[in-house]
């Protein structure tokens, strides 16, 4: 079973440093309360670790 991560933007990127905005964009998040699902990789974990104050993260288990 592959572990996946559900990432939701919970706080606004307005007034944030440009690198934080670019990290949100790299995760595929473009607006508030948008949710994206990614595989659990070190690269995705690193991006999440840079902006945890803007995100809500949930673990999903793939049953397929």
Structure description:
The protein has 64 residues and is an alpha+beta fold. The chain has a single domain, classed as Ribosomal protein L30/L7 (Ribosomal Protein L30, Chain: A), CATH 3.30.1390.20. Helix content is 28%, strand content 30%. The protein has two helices and three strands, in the order E-H-E-H-E. Strands 2-1-3 form a three-stranded antiparallel sheet, with no helix packed on it. The longest helix is centred in the middle third of the chain and has 9 residues, at 18-26.
Instruction: Give the CATH H-level superfamily.
Output: Ribosomal protein L30/L7
Number of domains: 1
CATH topology: Ribosomal Protein L30, Chain: A
What distance separates the N and C termini? 7 Å
Mean pLDDT: 94
Strand order of the largest sheet: 2-1-3
Task: Summarize the entry for a quick read.
28% of the residues lie in helices and 30% in strands. The protein has a single domain, classed as Ribosomal Protein L30, Chain: A (2-Layer Sandwich), CATH 3.30.1390.20.
What features would you highlight for this structure?
elongated; alpha+beta; three-stranded antiparallel β-sheet; Ribosomal Protein L30, Chain: A; 2 helices; 3 strands; 64 residues
Write the layout of secondary structure elements.
Elements: E1 3-9, H1 18-26, E2 35-39, H2 42-50, E3 55-61
Antiparallel strand pairs: 1-2, 1-3
């Amino acid at each position: 079973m592959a572990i996946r991560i559900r990432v939701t933007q919970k706080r606004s990127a307005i007034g944030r440093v440009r690198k934080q905005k670019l990290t949100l964009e790299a995760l595929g998040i473009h607006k508030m309360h948008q949710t994206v699902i990614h595989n659990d990789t070190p690269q995705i974990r690193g991006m999440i670790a840079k902006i945890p104050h803007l995100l809500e993260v949930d673990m999903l288990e793939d049953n397929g």
